[in-house]
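Holo model, protoporphyrin IX containing FE. Inputs:
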Amino acid sequence: MTTPHAATAAELLSTPEAWADMVRWHQLMGEIRRDVPVVRLEPEGFLPFYAVLRYADVAAIERDADLWLNTTFSVLGLEADKQRLIDSGLPLPRTLVHLDGVDHRDHRQVANDWFKPGSVKKRQARIDEIADSYIDRMRELGGECDFARDIAQPFTLRVIMEIFGVPDSDEPLMLELTQGMFGAADPEFMGDVGDPGEVLMNSIMKFIEYFNAITTDRQQNPSDDLATVIANGEPGGCPMGDAERLWYYIIIATAGHDTTSYGLAGGVEALLHNQDQLWDLRGDDSLAETAALEAIRWTAPVRHFMRYATRDTEVAGVPVGEGERVLLCYPSANRDETVFDEPDRFDVRRPNADRLLSFGGGTHYCLGSQFARREIRTMLSRLAARLESIEQSGPAEWSHSYFVSGVKHLPVTYRFR
Ligand code: HEM
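Output:
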């Protein structure tokens, strides 16, 4: 059965280009969400799925890890690309996101301590230094830059690569491979290849080569970095499998920066249109924390994850059969007007900004959320304190991807105080 909204919802959720115009996206998706909570879709080339659009339903599914499993295919993708990956013999995704039950719990335990609020807090001084080095970079650029490309992206990349133990000389490679993984359909990230499925496979192959060398090195020469913890990790007391180890590295190396970079750049883009809110951040650290949460609610850079029903059930009255799958639509849930007052207004004082669903929920709740919040908060408050003025000097551009996407170019002109 198809609903009247199916064609529009399918276009919005499964076409990479639809994510390049977020004003249109939110306007159309808002109309659908207010009308129907769940839409069954079967876009050409994809297996069918139910798009879950409202806050309460996304949150309830996130909380029930017995009824809803993640499985190996937790991200929407073309069947042809999936088949090509299976046929290639490359290790299929086994990141934390793709694991369930005890397996997931034991693997998450391996790196968990590094991401706890107390551990992340200890890194604040270093996050401040890295933020300052990129603010200095803005000064060097002489009053004009692409904030997304020149500042947000390298800043968030450096923070995570430093704890990971990847030298800064390898950062361009990490960036290229991440964009191949998350934004494979964006023409700007495709290079000469021209086929998103191939870009994705090339990225996986290069990651394998890179991280195999890291494993050998960290097993022979353990260091005090996160790569050493993963190389020698023993989930449930047993050595980690090769596929799980590889994908552990990959999720930290990828999820750790593109997401946060899009949250920061998209937050700055919103603040440029709400200048009074930007200047209110000067000297008010607690407001900067709410502003960071609001930026992450507003941008929702992870566009979805999938869940699979372990038995016949229903979502908001719509029957979902055993083995069928739902798409948790975070950007839509974050604009649900039954939870967020005037959800399409950016508000650094939003009283319930901390109810955002951008980090998911339940057992898979984003491992790196504390880093993301601190990085964005730190950059916003330091920028507000030092800048005298900042203006957008050209159109912002969003990347084309229905998995992880956001502002990839944000031309600005500015003066320091
Ligand atoms: C604004 C930035 C970020 C956003 C919006 C974001 C979003 C998400 C979402 C939606 C999930 C899945 C949650 C679920 O299924 O319930 C997730 C999981 C995860 N994130 Fe993030 N993330 C961000 C930053 C980070 C950072 C900085 C790291 C650091 C390495 C990170 C590492 C992870 C990992 C390892 C998982 C898997 C957790 C699990 O399945 O147990 N993320 N993230």
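The radius of gyration is 21 Å. The first helix runs from residue 6 to 14.
Archived with the compound record.
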